[in-house]
Amino acid sequence: MTDVKIIKRYQNRKLYDTHQSCYVTLEEISQMIKSGDDLRVIDNKTKNDITQATLTQLLYETERKTSQPVPVELLKEIIRKGDGSFSGYIRGNLKGEISRFDTDTSPSRAVASELAEAITQ
Fold it and tell me: Do 81 and 108 belong to one domain?
């Protein structure tokens, strides 16, 4: 079983990796996740888990830097059809698409099934 890395976020927005005992950037957190690390981001003052907000910020910052950003029309569709949230859009519009993989007999079937279940929870 792997240890969960704890990243503390201080009021000055600095992120501190308690496992490595050093400050980290969003890019370094991205690399940790890509490497398979499990982590949680905790607000140092309130002790609240802010992992979702931090990862959303990471995605936003990454998207902002890309040479091919998400088309405005797709963003509008997500807002219209997903009650303004990505998760609402995925639950409402992509569930059926992902469920189609469930009839597949390839090894990806289990992964697709797990993904569809996670999205619809």
Answer: yes
